[in-house]
């Protein structure tokens, strides 16, 4: 019961970030599950998928209610992501836990850079076939990240939707959540086929993240997203440094 209660505030915080910026918050789920809630690394990546997928699904439905989701784009992007998620899940099962966390630290640094790049994104209509192909390739890459690390990949999806497909940022955030829900579901199915999770912690974490995602969407118009993005990027860099220090010391 103590683990479930401890999961609640972290779930709300991660859900709020997911609802606010269409991704990013979920990338903290794995470190929280491992270092705060004491979950084994492979179980944590599976539990993270449940948390991320559930929060993204509810958040996408909330955005769709006000017209902020491009359903066809989400389905096309999500199909490529689902295929990548299956491959990423298979790779997760054969790679050592410390290697996963070191690679995850590199991913956090990439996410911090991508979040900062988003500050200047502007939509430019782009319907060329090359843009669709690049979007499909990005979807495949996102799926691989989702399956391997248990993250949603919104920090990659949102810039791709804006820069490659010309979606306004508000539509990109809602559509990103729909894509995350699809790719997380594919990866979760693959993970559950060969692993176990702590359903009590995962369910409590997911419920809190859902509440946070709904709150985040409503806060979106009231907060300075540039400042929020900068602070979040700094947080990611800090977590990445801690992961490197902890896991290099263990390997040595």
Point out poorly predicted stretches: none
Radius of gyration (CA) equals: 17 Å
Can you write the helix and strand succession as a string?
A: HHHHHHHHHH
Look at the helices and sheets and give the structural class. Answer: mainly alpha
Annotation field: number of helices: 10
Largest sheet: none
Overview of this protein structure:
The protein has 252 residues and is an all-alpha fold. It has one domain (2-251). It is 79% helix and 0% strand.
Structure in a nutshell:
The chain is mainly alpha-helical and 252 residues long. It contains ten helices and no strands. It is globular, with a radius of gyration of 17 Å.
Give a quick set of tags describing it.
252 residues; mainly alpha; 10 helices; globular
Q: How do the helices and strands line up, and which of them pair or pack?
A:
Layout: H1 2-21, H2 29-36, H3 41-65, H4 71-92, H5 97-117, H6 129-149, H7 154-163, H8 169-192, H9 199-219, H10 225-251
């Amino acid at each position: 019961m103590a683990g479930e209660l401890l999961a609640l505030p972290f779930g709300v915080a991660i859900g709020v970030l997911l609802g606010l910026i269409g991704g990013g918050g979920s990338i903290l789920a794995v470190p929280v599950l491992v270092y705060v809630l004491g979950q084994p690394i492979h179980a944590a990546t599976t539990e993270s998928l449940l948390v991320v997928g559930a929060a993204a699904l509810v958040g996408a439905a909330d955005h769709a209610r006000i017209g902020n989701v491009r359903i066809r784009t989400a389905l096309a992007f999500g199909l490529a992501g689902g295929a990548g998620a299956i491959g990423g899940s298979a790779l997760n099962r054969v790679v050592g836990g410390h290697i996963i966390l070191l690679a995850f630290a590199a991913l956090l640094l990439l996410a911090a850079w991508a979040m900062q790049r988003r500050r200047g994104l502007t939509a430019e209509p782009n319907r060329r076939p090359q843009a669709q192909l690049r979007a499909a390739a990005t979807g495949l890459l996102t799926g691989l990240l989702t399956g391997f690390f248990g993250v949603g990949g919104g920090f990659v999806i949102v810039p791709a939707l804006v820069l490659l497909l010309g979606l306004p940022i508000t539509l990109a955030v809602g559509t990103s959540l729909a894509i995350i829900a699809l790719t997380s579901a594919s990866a979760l199915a693959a993970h559950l086929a060969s692993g176990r999770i702590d359903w009590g912690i995962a369910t409590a974490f997911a419920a809190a993240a859902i509440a946070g995602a709904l709150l985040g969407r409503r806060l979106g118009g009231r907060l300075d997203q540039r400042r929020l993005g900068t602070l979040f990027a700094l947080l990611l860099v800090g977590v990445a440094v801690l992961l490197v220090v902890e896991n290099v010391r263990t390997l040595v």
